Amino acid sequence: MGSVRKASAWLGLVEDDGRYYDDEYAEGQEAGDAWVTDPRVRVASESASQEGRRIATVSPDGFRDARGIGELFRDGVPVIVNLTSMEPGDAKRVVDFAAGLCFGLRGSIERVATRVFLLTPADTRIVSGDPAGRSQDGFFNQS
Questions:
Q1: How far apart are CA 96 and CA 18, in angstroms?
Q2: How does the average pLDDT of the chain come out, rounded?
Q3: Which residues contact 117 (CB under 8 A, 6 or more apart)?
Q4: Secondary structure of residue 11 in the 3-state scheme
């Protein structure tokens, strides 16, 4: 059902027929295919995973969420860990865990921003955003 139809049904303008998905979406789903994911973990689309280009972002609430970070990293998925919503003590424990995880699996850990870290497996190459041959007085020099 489209969003306009849902809103109309909620307001009582049209009768709710009980369908929540488009017909073509419902045909492709089996009854046992439903799965639940943690809303704090986002992984790139299915086509990206088939080509080996997946990156997960995790925003843990506490140290108990470190296991999810470890499982993703162990599967070879680069993980961006956002610790901005955590208490400083728990954030330090997660960073220590992530550093040990990277050391044990021969990966690397890199600080991207304040309390945001990128964990990359051993077979992943990080490309810097700065082109190698760009001079300092290049395009934006207006003198």
A1: 49
A2: 75
A3: 80, 81, 83, 95, 98, 109, 110, 111
A4: helix
CB atoms within 10 A of CB 68: 16
List the structure tokens of 56.
């997960």
Which of 6-20, 87-101, 114-128 is predicted most confidently?
A: 87-101
What is the C-alpha separation between 8 and 16, in angstroms, rounded?
9
pLDDT tens sequence across 39-63: 555 555 555 545 567 889 999 998 9
- Predicted confidence (pLDDT) at residue 37 exceeds the cutoff of 60: no
For the CA atoms of 83, 92, 103, 109, the dihedral, rounded to the nearest 10 degrees, stands at: 40
23, 46, 68 from 26: Cα distances, Å? 5, 18, 30
Cα 2 to Cα 59: distance, rounded to the nearest angstrom: 31
d(CA 99, CA 44): 24
Residue 141: what pLDDT?
54
For Cα atoms 42, 44, 48, give the angle at the middle one, nearest 5 degrees.
160
